[in-house]
């Protein structure tokens, strides 16, 4: 059981033997390994276990003062441990369901590497998730200086799960993907949604979110369009600001009880030169010019107005871009000093933590470049994104990344090469100190040094409530875009279904039938089409790549074209990417676009219980020829789009 104050004043008075507490507000404290010290009737965690109040333990001081004191007490190895994000090891082999973390392995990692930043891939219900993160904090508290863990996660509330980009939701209410948030375009609703995410994540022990993803979705074929805020730079900037504010708990930076936002990926990642993703060797280039760059940083300008805790750089090598009349060094953005220190810190004034994306320091082997042979499943172990620095050693890559502006390296389990880079004179410890200071200031601001623990019983009651689920379902329906026709069917309608759960139709008052001749209407659900073009690459095997056009033999076209003449057809397409809907519109009476919605949410729309209010967050091209002719860095520039950016049908 976690020992902590029940209330701020009452708990403090009890531990002080009913002494009067000073006017300064006593925060709730949580501890398992260390004890408390009492000064002037106030209580503090004795993190270094010296039975005295050390300045960094003193919550009356500012985060900056506490960080300066703690930094002065740290060894180089302990500082380097602050600059990596290790993976919290699950208590089950990869691919098998885990119930928590491997606590013995966690304790060993913390003792040997001094890591305190961990990403969790654990996918389970809220209560065991909270218990697991408490166990992680207990292991961190046992460290020499008692520095609490910053436990981070990829998004867990979006509808679509993608390994390496999001995590299955478990107990969390499910909401539309990022493009659905943009389709609705309501900053107040976005802020409310982000506030719910904040409460859920903190209740389960998370204090940092690798999100929101605010890349400008200018290349329609790009596989990660689904979780952006679309290709309208103004809408994306507005949604980014609202989400960061709600997630962090304030409009001007992270607060105690907030979740640190790491907005990503600065910048140009989505302007893929060939439509592929820069997780892969074959997709490592983006292409945009100076005017397009201004549009791609616009969402980040919106986010930075709310002072996000972190920014994650893009993987890509930026082709064609010249800044101040000079071309960029052809390296990934994480290694590009002119982008990170020049544009992000200098021009835009960002003073938070720069967190690299994963695998940027790893060697790119033949399997990374050429993919795994046919018949051999690809592996995350062979993924590297060290674009443009392949000829450097791993130690040199760490040095170059730190010099460019990286504070924390994602997906690194051992900081030994950071230590080596300093000891070999490849990078100054002054830069290390500056990075670690930024990291520590945030941890103090989050309140983790006072109480990193959570109450699993509270989690069970407060996370994924019926109210939360209803809010998510409402947003799924409201974010839909009506493209053609009228979206309502009368109660009792006999419906022929494709891609729809009959139980959801029955729950909405419809009568599912299997014979088209007995139907009053047909309902078809499908997703934007894709091709599996690179099965030998880990992310190539996971991503939607290739053509956005429905092939002639697609099951959705077969269903639509074989319906009896005159039978009304309602089509809903989940737009993970901007599909070419031209052949479907020929057959359909009503066309809806959705962005991550359950069958129940769709039925709410068809029954008239929820009104689809969305506008297209990206244009829908008329043909693949139009897609291939446009520039990857320019928004909404395909010739004669079937539906333009921002479109919705009049009702």
Automatic annotation (TrEMBL):
Domain Glycoside hydrolase family 3 C-terminal: 514-647
InterPro entries xref list: Cellulose_Degrad_GH3, GH, Glyco_hydro_3_C, Glyco_hydro_3_C_sf, Glyco_hydro_3_N, Glyco_hydro_3_N_sf
EC category name: hydrolase
Molecular function (Gene Ontology), one example: beta-glucosidase activity
Catalytic activity field: Hydrolysis of terminal, non-reducing beta-D-glucosyl residues with release of beta-D-glucose
E.C. number(s) listed in UniProt: 3.2.1.21
Ranges that cross the membrane: none
Domain named Glycoside hydrolase family 3 N-terminal: residues: 75-440
Keyword annotations: Glycosidase, Hydrolase, Signal
Gene3D superfamilies, A to Z: Glycoside hydrolase family 3 C-terminal domain (3.40.50.1700), Glycoside hydrolase, family 3, N-terminal domain (3.20.20.300)
Domain of life: Bacteria
GO biological-process terms attached to the record: glucan catabolic process
Region spans: Disordered: 628-651
Annotated Pfam families: Glyco_hydro_3 (PF00933), Glyco_hydro_3_C (PF01915)
Transcription regulation recorded as keyword: no
Family: Belongs to the glycosyl hydrolase 3 family.
Protein name: beta-glucosidase
């Amino acid at each position: 059981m976690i020992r902590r104050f029940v209330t701020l004043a009452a708990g403090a008075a009890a531990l002080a033997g009913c002494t009067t507490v000073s006017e300064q507000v006593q925060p709730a404290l949580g501890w398992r390994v260390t004890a408390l010290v009492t000064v002037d009737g106030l209580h503090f965690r004795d993190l270094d276990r010296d039975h005295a109040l050390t300045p960094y333990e003193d919550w009356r001081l500012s985060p900056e003062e506490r960080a300066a004191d703690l930094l002065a007490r740290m060894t180089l190895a302990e500082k380097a441990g602050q600059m990596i994000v290790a993976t919290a090891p699950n208590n089950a082999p990869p691919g098998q369901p885990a119930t928590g973390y491997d606590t013995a392995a966690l304790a060993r990692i913390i003792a040997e590497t001094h890591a305190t930043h961990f990403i969790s891939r654990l996918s389970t219900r809220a209560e065991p998730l909270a218990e697991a993160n408490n166990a992680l904090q207990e292991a961190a508290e046992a460290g020499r200086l008692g520095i609490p863990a910053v436990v981070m996660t990829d998004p867990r509330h979006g509808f679509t799960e993608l390994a390496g980009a999001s995590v299955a939701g478990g107990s969390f209410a499910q909401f539309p993907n990022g493009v659905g948030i943009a389709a609705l375009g309501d900053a107040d609703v976005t802020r409310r949604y982000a506030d719910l995410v904040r409460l859920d994540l903190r209740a389960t022990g998370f204090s940092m979110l690798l999100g929101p993803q605010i890349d400008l979705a200018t290349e329609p074929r790009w596989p990660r369009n689904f979780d952006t805020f679309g290709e309208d730079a103004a809408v994306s900037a507005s949604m980014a600001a609202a989400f960061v504010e709600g997630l962090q708990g304030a409009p001007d930076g992270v607060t105690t009880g907030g979740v640190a936002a790491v907005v990503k990926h600065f910048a140009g990642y989505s302007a893929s030169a060939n439509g592929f993703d820069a997780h892969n060797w074959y997709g490592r280039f983006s292409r945009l010019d100076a005017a397009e760059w201004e549009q791609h940083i616009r969402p980040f300008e919106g986010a930075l107005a709310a002072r996000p805790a972190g920014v994650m750089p893009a993987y890509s090598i930026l082709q064609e871009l010249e800044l101040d009349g000079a071309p960029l060094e052809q390296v990934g953005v994480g290694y590009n000093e002119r982008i990170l220190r020049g544009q992000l810190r200098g021009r835009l004034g960002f003073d938070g933590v720069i967190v690299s994306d994963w695998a940027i320091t790893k060697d790119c082997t033949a399997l990374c470049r050429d993919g795994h042979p046919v018949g051999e499943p690809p592996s995350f172990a062979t993924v590297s994104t060290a674009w443009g620095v392949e000829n450097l050693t791993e130690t040199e890559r760490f040095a170059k990344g730190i010099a460019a502006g990286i504070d924390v390296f994602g997906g690194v389990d051992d900081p030994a090469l950071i230590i080596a880079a300093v000891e070999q004179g490849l990078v100054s410890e002054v830069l290390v100190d500056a990075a670690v200071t930024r990291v520590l200031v945030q941890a103090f601001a989050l309140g983790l040094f006072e109480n990193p623990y959570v109450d699993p019983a509270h989690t069970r009651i407060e996370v994924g409530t019926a109210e939360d689920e209803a809010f998510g379902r409402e947003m799924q329906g409201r974010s839909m875009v009506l493209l053609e026709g009228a979206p309502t069917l009368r109660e009792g309608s006999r419906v022929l279904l494709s891609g729809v759960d009959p139980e959801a139709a029955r729950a909405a008052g419809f009568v599912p039938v299997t014979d088209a001749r007995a139907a009053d209407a047909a309902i078809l659900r499908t997703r934007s089409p894709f091709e599996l073009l690179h099965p030998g690459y880990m992310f190539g095997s996971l991503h939607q790549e290739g053509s956005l056009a429905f092939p002639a033999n697609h099951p959705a076209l077969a269903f639509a074209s074989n319906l009896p003449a005159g039978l009304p057809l309602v089509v809903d397409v989940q737009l993970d990417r901007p599909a070419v809907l031209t052949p479907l519109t020929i057959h359909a009476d009503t066309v809806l676009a959705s962005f991550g919605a359950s069958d129940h949410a769709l039925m709410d729309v068809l029954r008239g219980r929820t009104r689809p209010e969305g506008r297209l967050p990206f244009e829908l091209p008329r043909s693949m020829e139009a897609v291939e002719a446009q520039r990857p860095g320019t928004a909404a520039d395909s010739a004669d789009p079937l539906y333009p950016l921002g479109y919705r049908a009049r009702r």
